[in-house]
Amino acid sequence: MVQKRYYELSAAERDAFEAACGRHGFVAEDFEVSMQEDPANAQRTIGVGRVVGSQFEEYATTDGIAWVVLFERDLADDAFGFPLAD
């Protein structure tokens, strides 16, 4: 397994993640994002944790930005809590 950080995701994934955050009142910096890749079977696991609080979810995927759809669903379901007020 290869461990990677947020900035190592593709530009399309970062853009989709940031857009999903924005639609729900968050910013990307509200989250810690990491990725584990298994090159042998093209499987990736994206871990997303809320910086403030203990909410954490993992998304298994083999398809680019598909995990962002699941992340946004979790945002809509308040799985990561509510955004902090400015």
Any chance you could write out the topology, listing elements then pairs?
Layout: E1 2-5, H1 11-23, E2 31-38, E3 43-50, E4 56-61, H2 66-76
Antiparallel strand pairs: 1-2, 2-3, 3-4
Helix pairs in contact: 1-2
Q: Can you put this structure into words, describing what you see?
A:
- The protein is of the alpha+beta class and 86 residues long.
- The chain has a single domain (2-76), classed as Double Stranded RNA Binding Domain.
- It is built from 2 helices and 4 strands.
- A 4-stranded antiparallel beta sheet has the order 1-2-3-4, with helices on one face.
- A hairpin with a 5-residue loop joins strand 3 (43-50) and strand 4 (56-61).
- Helix 1 (11-23) runs parallel beside helix 2 (66-76).
- The chain is globular, with a radius of gyration of 12 Å.
- The chain starts with a strand and ends in a 10-residue tail after the last helix.
- The model has no long low-confidence stretch (mean pLDDT 91).
